[in-house]
Amino acid sequence: MDKFVVEGGVRLDGRVTAAGAKNAVLPMMAAALLGDGPLRLERAPHLSDVRTMLKVLEGLGCEGRQEEDGTVVLETKGEPNVVAPWEQVRKMRASVCVLGPLTARAHRAEVSLPGGCVFGVRPIDVHLRGLEALGARVTIEKGYVKTEAPGGLKGAEVFLGTAFGPSVTGTMNVMMAATLAKGRTVIHGAACEPEVADLCRCLVAMGANIDGIGSPRLVIEGVERLGGATHRVLADRIEAGTYLVAGAITGGRVRVDDCRPGQLAALTDRLREAGYGVERGDDWIEVHGEGFGQRPRPTDVTTQPFPGFPTDLQAQWMALMCRAEGVSLVTERIYPDRYMHLPELVRMGARIRRQEATAVVEGTPRLSGAPVMASDLRASAALVLAGLVSDGVTEVHRVYHIDRGYERIDDRLRALGAKVRREEGGE
Ligand SMILES: CC(=O)N[C@H]1[C@@H](OP(=O)(O)OP(=O)(O)OC[C@H]2O[C@@H](n3ccc(=O)[nH]c3=O)[C@H](O)[C@@H]2O)O[C@H](CO)[C@@H](O)[C@@H]1O
Ligand SMILES: C=C(OP(=O)(O)O)C(=O)O
């Protein structure tokens, strides 16, 4: 297993180009099960999650490949297979996104319940209720969700909210299913994350009829068939945000190109509040600090559905606040248990205590490098960020988590001046 070795003490300076969004490309790849022609997804990131999704789709009879420039090309010839086994689905939650397309296209599906709940319960009841509302019979047997809709799906009114806000992949699953249902589907309480809107645009390019894109009310008129399309994947706002926090934590200057600044407004607002300069153009954002050793002002965040502060940037923000000049509160409203990074940051000298869904972070001038264990994707990014400002060497183990969602993060941080290398032989 690989590990990252991070030597702290360097102020980052430079530019990085945002990759395509993991959370947009994965459901788009599942959408290839809906169409007859080839689907070309440009600017897809080179990630292990993309490779896993290619395998899941291959097992379902959808041929695919990723080209050197990132473009993913997929085509489902004839009827898809309908069984997505545990061995593949367990590696990645987004593989649950094949459920809606398979049920719509083949009128049945057998998809393993996604495993690996690394930060608490991650149910899919909303996905299942949505598909039931469209006329599917849904059962759970031996760890598999089975859907059947012998006469095909029928449009309906559905509400997809949960106690923690709308469900992102739940909206995507039901929306994809509705594109081939008979008649009109109205989704109330749809997730408004930019990745959902980007998936809508990809489906429209394939021939789907969707109104209300980007809003909590989606109206989908089912069509007989969808075809192929070419779509350029949206920039990854979470990856972009991670590099901005990397710039800030080192008191440096980092510009992220080819991104959508408006989609990171919650982060840039907090960065300014924490004492950093933020400039933005139409498709770039730059953060600048006052030099290595700068300590941020303590700045609270509460995670919320878009356009609120994203849960996928919570761990990175906590790393930044570990060195703040005072006490800040980080409150997790989407996944109240998403705090696996907390004990690892404490191992690096951070002073954090948890009070239910809130972490109380008492900033300290000094963090010290340590061997730490990555537990999930964003937690691992946070540990790398903390390593950038720690005395000595930080070893981040289990970097396969980070490879799920960051394309060559070690190379890209090095290009900004960081001392980070990948080594074999981690725990
Ligand atoms: C592949 C992908 O796109 N992953 C993202 C997606 O995950 P994912 O789509 O799994 O997350 P959801 O939006 O579904 O979850 C939001 C909240 O709703 C709850 N819930 C969800 C579904 C359900 O059926 N019942 C239920 O109660 C969840 O436990 C959570 O508290 O959105 C999350 C929230 O922005 C992000 O952190 C993930 O990076
Ligand atoms: C939680 C994430 O991904 P997933 O839903 O695929 O686990 C993430 O991208 O931060």
Automatic annotation (TrEMBL):
Listed GO CC annotations: cytoplasm
Superkingdom field: Bacteria
Function: Cell wall formation. Adds enolpyruvyl to UDP-N-acetylglucosamine.
Coiled coil region boundaries: none
Subcellular location: Cytoplasm
Binding site for phosphoenolpyruvate: 22-23
Domain called Enolpyruvate transferase: residue spans: 6-413
Protein family: Belongs to the EPSP synthase family. MurA subfamily.
Catalyzed reaction equations: phosphoenolpyruvate + UDP-N-acetyl-alpha-D-glucosamine = UDP-N-acetyl-3-O-(1-carboxyvinyl)-alpha-D-glucosamine + phosphate
Active site feature: 117 (proton donor)
Protein name per the record: UDP-N-acetylglucosamine 1-carboxyvinyltransferase
One example GO MF annotation: UDP-N-acetylglucosamine 1-carboxyvinyltransferase activity
Pfam families registered for this protein in UniProt: EPSP_synthase (PF00275)
InterPro entries: Enolpyruvate_Tfrase_dom, Enolpyruvate_Tfrase_sf, MurA_subfamily, RNA3'P_cycl/enolpyr_Trfase_a/b, UDP_GlcNAc_COvinyl_MurA
UniProt keyword annotation of Ribonucleoprotein present: no
Annotated EC: 2.5.1.7
Keyword annotations: Cell cycle, Cell division, Cell shape, Cell wall biogenesis/degradation, Cytoplasm, Peptidoglycan synthesis, Pyruvate, Transferase
GO terms, biological process: cell division; cell wall organization; peptidoglycan biosynthetic process; regulation of cell shape; UDP-N-acetylgalactosamine biosynthetic process
Organism whose genome encodes this protein: Rohdeia mirabilis
UniProt binding sites for UDP-N-acetyl-alpha-D-glucosamine: 93, 312, 334
Gene giving rise to this polypeptide: murA
Pathway: Cell wall biogenesis; peptidoglycan biosynthesis
Root EC class: transferase
Signal peptide: none
